[in-house]
Design a protein that fits this description.
This protein is of the alpha/beta class and 145 residues long. Helices cover 25% and strands 19% of the residues. α1 crosses α4. It is globular.
């Protein structure tokens, strides 16, 4: 995933919960608090997929929500990125053998970043998005410019 200089200034997230236990949803909300302060990277949650740069998917994808997930993915303008947050969004997790579960988000939309964990930690999401926007662990810019 490579971002231009202008895109590195901010990433706007749209969250899609496709089901599951909601553990990763709680961790996503924790990530948005002042403890992790994602706004210092320009990261914020937006209410519309038409304003988003990144689609964050949590939970296993079921046959019922697959068309909605695809529709939301199609509404996000290019360039767009998809983050599968949690083991369920990556592979279906503990729900993978259920009759109505298709698997992870990659079964319906192309996934750029997979963050495993049950639930995935806010730090893992922060680290992944920091790499996307070009910020090192020490706060410096990792871009060669």
């Amino acid at each position: 995933m490579k971002l231009s200089l202008l895109q590195r200034k901010s990433l706007w997230l749209y969250h899609f919960n496709s089901g599951g236990c909601n553990g990763c949803d709680i961790e996503l909300v924790a990530f948005l608090t002042s403890r992790y302060d994602p706004e210092r990277l320009g990261v914020q949650l937006v209410p519309s997929p038409r304003h988003a740069d990144v689609l964050v998917v949590t939970g296993p994808v079921t046959s019922q929500v697959a068309p909605a997930l695809r529709s939301i993915y199609d509404q996000i303008p290019y360039p767009k990125y998809v983050v599968a947050l949690g083991t369920c969004a990556c592979s279906g997790g503990v729900f993978a053998d259920c009759y109505n579960v298709l698997g992870g988000a990659g079964e319906v939309v192309p996934v750029d970043v997979k963050i495993p964990g049950c639930p995935a930690s806010p730090r893992a999401l922060l680290k992944a998005l920091s790499k996307v926007v070009g910020v090192s662990n020490h706060g410096g810019n990792t871009s060669p410019e």
